[in-house]
Design a protein that fits this description.
disordered N terminus; binds CU-O-CU linkage; Metallo-oxidoreductase; Immunoglobulin-like; binds copper (II) ion; 3 domains; membrane; alpha+beta; 6-stranded mixed sheet
């Protein structure tokens, strides 16, 4: 820089000595030449930079997530590229360790629930002339809601009639690792014309959902998802009406169970109604119930202890999360479920769920400005297997970030975990029986990150450094907003190779994924171009 300026100064001193039209012409030529040279240099540097970024951020041909050949020490692993470790595994150790396919549910049980989900194209209409081509399970999106009883063995046959590979992940369910449905980690994506069977015990009651985990951003967005309801063996409460509702954006409009207008649910006054909601999108919504006070009965399928009635309180629901809302049907008028996009000042007039008879007067939309629901202070305290006073075997800080750069050869946004993006993100090694504490922090304005852990349910210990004051809260997806932090903890009680990622699937697609792994597990599956397994 300095040199260049000096040269320019020198030349401007020399210049007046020449003069004349020929000299001027030569000088202009020289300037043009120099300009073109500059442009060329600039392009070379930028092009080289882009090229290098694309090359260095590309996925390796094969990434093997197995740990059978890893050192178990997190210290050593921190700076190690997982793909390097993958190729080490490929180099000869892949036979050792516990094969992932052996981490299975029992072959049989007293009760078996069997389903077939066929991935197939469909043309969906959402009402009032709105329609779209979609990828579906059994021709609808959401796909069929699977109702099973707690403790049952669930068998799901996936048939693929689409022209690309798919899988099914059971979001929130603590399935054995081989049934987790993550392409390139627990199975190969199921190719067109092929079938695959998932088998797992429905361990915990509650509201769950399923979606493809091959190119999950694209495939879930295009409709490959549905809900799973696990009814408890012993219920503590009785519901007369029980309805599952999936929130999903089509043609940039929100829909509820694929409807842009009104969803009617019938209920008689005096009946208990449970609405189970999942947000299958990447961005948060706010929702509320009007017409009667309601209870937040469960979060991510797990009961809240001693829920208290709320009146038109806005609830925020982020990607992947679920709410179970309960209310007693009033004498008069319908109860309405309203939704609003994050950032909107008002609830939308549609879509809306109307429970019961009568018309809802939409001029009476409640305000969104009243204080939001805060799970950290809701319900009654109760003893819990995991508390802040528990002894934690390991504590990890995961800081959620954002940068502009390259992810998998694409220039643009990159979402990071401790400064790194998948597949170079750090991994967490847990041993069976350990109690693991995770500290999530979103220090910058890097967006909202609903962090989802596969195969485990975690207990929330703190929000912004403060212990929870209400009911114990058990989740599989925790939304970490800018400048928020949370501590969560879980027992390492389900051996395998598990993903921990943001459920804004765009963020996951752009690097925000890491692995929580148990030592000495081998997998024959790989992520990357060789297998065409791309879990996000
Ligand atoms: Cu609902 Cu890894 O996903
Ligand atoms: Cu995110």
């Amino acid at each position: 820089m300095k040199n260049q300026r000096e040269t320019e100064q020198q030349e401007s001193v020399i210049e007046p000595q020449v003069g004349g039209p020929v000299a001027k012409k030569q000088k202009r030529k020289k300037l043009v030449k120099r300009f073109l040279l500059g442009v060329l240099c600039f392009l070379l540097i930028v092009g080289g930079g882009i090229g290098w970024g694309m090359w260095s951020s590309r996925y390796p041909e094969r990434i093997n997530m197995g740990t059978a050949c890893h050192t178990e020490d997190m210290k050593d692993m921190k700076d190690m590229n997982m793909s390097d470790m993958g190729s080490m595994c490929q180099a000869g150790h892949s036979g050792s360790g516990t094969p992932i396919d052996t981490l299975q549910a029992p072959q049989t049980a007293a009760h078996i629930d069997t389903f077939t989900l066929t991935a197939q194209p469909a043309h969906l209409s959402f009402g009032s002339g709105n329609a779209s081509d979609a990828w579906t399970f059994n021709g609808t999106s959401p796909g069929p809601t699977l109702h099973v009883r707690q403790g049952d063995l669930v068998m799901v046959h996936l048939v693929n009639h689409l022209s690309f590979g798919v899988t099914i992940h059971w979001h929130g369910m603590t399935v054995p690792n081989s049934a987790d449905g993550v392409a390139g980690v627990t199975q190969d994506a199921v190719k067109p014309g092929q079938t695959y069977t998932y088998r797992f015990l429905a361990k915990d009651a509650g509201t769950y959902w399923y979606h493809s985990h091959q190119e999950s951003f694209e495939q879930t967005g295009h409709g490959l998802y549905g809900m799973v309801i696990v009814t408890p063996i012993i219920s503590t409460v009785h519901d007369d009406v029980d309805t599952a509702l999936a929130l999903h954006t089509w043609n940039s409009s929100p829909t509820l169970n694929g409807a842009m207008g009104t969803v009617h649910v019938s209920a008689q006054s005096g009946q208990w109604v449970r609405l189970r909601l999942v947000n299958t999108d990447n961005y948060p919504y706010h929702l509320t119930l009007v017409g009667t006070p309601f209870l937040v009965a469960a979060l991510d399928g797990h009961d809240i202890n001693g829920p208290t009635p709320l009146t038109a309180v806005p609830l925020s629901i982020d990607g992947g999360q679920r709410y179970d809302l309960r209310f007693h049907m009033p004498e008069n008028g319908p109860v309405a479920l309203l939704i609003a996009k994050d950032g909107d000042q008002q609830y939308a007039k549609a879509p809306v769920v109307l429970v019961g008879q009568g018309q809802y007067v939409s001029s009476a939309l409640p305000s969104l400005s009243q204080n939001e629901f805060n799970f950290a202070t809701y319900g009654q305290p109760r003893t819990d297997p995991i508390t802040l006073q528990s002894h934690f075997d390991m504590t990890y800080t995961i800081s959620l970030g954002f940068t502009i750069g390259f992810s998998n050869s694409r220039p643009g946004p990159v979402f990071t975990l401790n400064g790194k993006s998948f597949p170079n993100s750090p991994e967490i090694v847990v041993k069976p029986g350990q109690l693991i504490r995770l500290h999530f922090e979103n220090n910058a304005d890097s967006g909202i990150h609903p962090m989802h852990l596969h195969g485990h349910t975690f207990t929330v210990l703190t929000k912004n450094g403060r212990a929870l004051a209400g009911s114990p809260v058990h989740l599989d997806t925790i939304s970490v907003r800018p400048h928020e932090s949370y501590d969560v903890a879980f027992y390492a009680d389900n051996p395998g190779l598990w993903m921990l990622h943001c459920h804004n699937l765009f963020h996951a697609n752009h690097g925000m994924d890491m692995m929580v792994v148990y030592p000495n597990i081998s997998t024959p599956y790989t992520i990357g171009n060789a297998s065409e397994n791309f879990p996000d």
